[in-house]
Amino acid sequence: MTNELTPKFNPTEVEAGRYEKWLEADVFKPSGNPDAEPYSIVIPPPNVTGKLHLGHAWDTTLQDIIIRQKRMQGFDTLWLPGMDHAGIATQAKVAARLAEDGILPQDLGREKFLDKVWEWKDEYATTIKEQWGKMGISVDYSRERFTLDEGLSQAVRKVFVQLYNKGWIYRGEKLINWDPKAMTALSDIEVIHKEIDGAFYHITYQIEGSDEFVEIATTRPETFLGDTAVIVNEKDERYKHLVGKNVILPIINRVIPILTDDHADMEKGTGVVKITPAHDPNDFEVAMRHDLPMINMMNNDGTINENGGKYEGLDRFEARKQIVADLKELGQLLDIKPVRHEVGHSERTGVVVEPRLSTQWFVKMDELAKNAIANQATEDAVEFYPPRFNDTFMQWMENVHDWVISRQLWWGHQIPAWYNEAGEMYVGEEAPEGEGWTQDEDVLDTWFSSALWPFSTMGWPDENSADFKRYFPTSTLVTGYDIIFFWVSRMIFQSLEFTGKSPFHNVLIHGLIRDEEGRKMSKSLGNGIDPMDVIEKYGADALRWFLSNGSAPGQDVRFSYDKMDAAWNFINKIWNVSRYILMNAEDVSADAVSSALTKVANKTAGNVTDRWILTRLNDTVERVTEQMDKFEFGVAGHILYNFIWDEFANWYLELTKEVMFGEDEAEKDITRAVLLHVLDQVLRLLHPIMPFFTEEIFEKLPNTSGSIVVAEYPKVRPEFNDDKASEGVAMLIELITAVRNIRAEVNTPLSKAVPMLIKSEHADFLNAVSPYISRFTNPSELTIAKDLAVPEQAMSAVITGAELYLPLAGLINIEEEIARLEKELAKWQKELDLVNKKLGNERFVANAKAEVVQKEKDKLADYQEKFDTVKARIAELKEN
Fold first, then answer.
1. Which CATH superfamily is domain 547-703 in?
2. 417-419 and 438-439 as β-strands: parallel, antiparallel, unpaired?
3. What is the pTM of this model?
4. 772 and 860 in contact (C-beta within 8 Å)?
5. Around Cβ 737, how many Cβ atoms within 10 Å?
6. 37-167+364-402+447-510 fold
7. Would you say 537 is a known binding-site residue?
8. CATH number of 184-355
9. Each residue's pLDDT tens digit, 398-444
10. Cα separation, 810 vs 94, whole angstroms
11. Cβ contact 548:65 at 8 Å
């Protein structure tokens, strides 16, 4: 049979070649429909340093869910892919590969080294695209960009020059964070502060011309080589007599002054502070106030320079050991006290960062930050999901410092500034005319170009670019909370400055993926998970289901193979449901389905279960769409799971067997049509989350054509709503469940027929569906009436709209039955208390939607009826 599915879901078979077919069919490109509303996303560009990690798989999964749904909803969608050159990380990786062959970058020179980096980029970009394919992400590769593309490079130069001409980019000597391994400057947010074990070294400085000493304490004794002053607080009576005198630095014997400054805290330590302006940010500020000299005592690689005297050439930490030993020998080391303190480390290389005076390029952040803050109070504000991350963004913008943008690297956008021998500097988008000009050797921080990503990828600075006019600002960005400062903030203030608009309307923030113990995944812990390994075992659809359902926006998620097993089992459940339907409805045409659904909607054909499942489908479509629009993918997934597994598979499919095993062919045709329609709609609802297997099944449905990628997303069809059918089948299901529970309690299997009595105001309906009751409960006798005599010895249950009795004389213990009913009574009392508390809350009643309040009132009436019925039954049993 052509439409037959394998008995067991095999992700490898289903996903093989599927992505290539989608690309060949060009289904991921924008529709080009001028009447359709545009919806655009730019992918958070992975850097070309290696393979994708789970965090990026999460980014791409959530964005693919969004763009696939919007595409199916008829939007003119663009998802633009690309990659980031990642200056420091990529250069370090390539240098490490060359080092394996004993080659240093300096041996090759700039141009040949960059050739090697471009080879690396091509290799790993290919790998990343292959991994994107395995993830199934629906990007438009005809628009793929790279941050070092000529078009993006042009945008970078234009932005640099314009900011420079406004005075917002400047070159100057300031204290910056220095990475001695990568030998480059870092911005504040590229420094990770970690707690490490250190020490306070208590050292004496002798007062010039006397035998008196002052005591200072430092965690970095090697920096005394760059001291240019000692300060005390002018109110400190202990040292007033020393102000204006000098101290002699130990070992190197340089004389420096004793000054007063409020930075010296009388209550902290000894009250005497050494000032090393070129290697400490607070000391730098003191030096600026007192016009002190600034002595850099360290080379680019972290070794001591010519200002270090006999320590010249030693690594900074080796120099520390030697200096401490020498101070101890001189008798000027008073004490060493262990301390646990935070020390800055390079986010890229992991080494301890060195605060260091250096000439660098900076962006003045005052006006850029002010504009970004003001924009959040306008209609063009960026909406953060969850909203609390707006506060994170605002707090950073309100406290931002000037941004050091120059990096001492070869891989990246070379700074568009040129110098000549006359000491002149030229800044421009192109090199100056004439001879004798040399371009600045530094490159720009990677985030400088990444900050332009949403609009530079759309053709800017050409504002007449079709993509820029059509798809900018982009609609939604999805990213982790760990790069709000690195990337999100910078995109916002650069976009506002150069386009006058926010770069995107929405920012969906997700958390971090942790291991099963809640630990952050890292190489040092060896607990990282390769998403490609997961896909090889479970398939991309299962991984995507896990990633979309793992947590709420902004929350971390724990990876678990148990959860992956559950995801695979869910897909296999749908697979088997689909096999059952295809085997029973392989020849049903689209016209037959349409005609049957019309009859069901008009109530001229079909039974109550058909109308029930279509009503439940409507409710599911409405709720899933609502949650997807709020980016609550976990909630949407939960709703889908419950509908598919419980209502559709476990109940409706089983209920249809009463028809499918019957003799009425007309009724069978209706049921087949409803089964196909619901399966079709389920696949469409699931497709954005799990694209591969939904396409596989969709193309085998006898009443569909084309790719599910561009199929219409489900909509609520009001003509299918039938509240009576919904309530009736809900009562039927509750009744069947109650019988099964009672049988289990008294160890009476379903194969053994037992008498059953049902007392209900809805006796007519229950009699109409009695074939279902008989099929699923196996009564020896079934009595359904509005009023009937209640047997004395019977197990009972109260459901919505009915009372159920199973006379099981000899199988029940009256006292145990009373005890069971008293537990049930307590349950209903608890439910009543909860609803009464909610309805007694004036704020809830006043602020909640009317339908929400009414729903709680309906619950109250239902619970009260059940409570009263159980209470009366307990009284009857006790009387007898």
1. Isoleucyl-tRNA Synthetase; Domain 1 (1.10.730.10)
2. antiparallel
3. 0.85
4. no
5. 15
6. Rossmann fold (3.40.50)
7. no
8. 3.90.740.10
9. 988 899 999 999 999 999 999 999 989 999 999 999 899 999 999 99
10. 82
11. yes
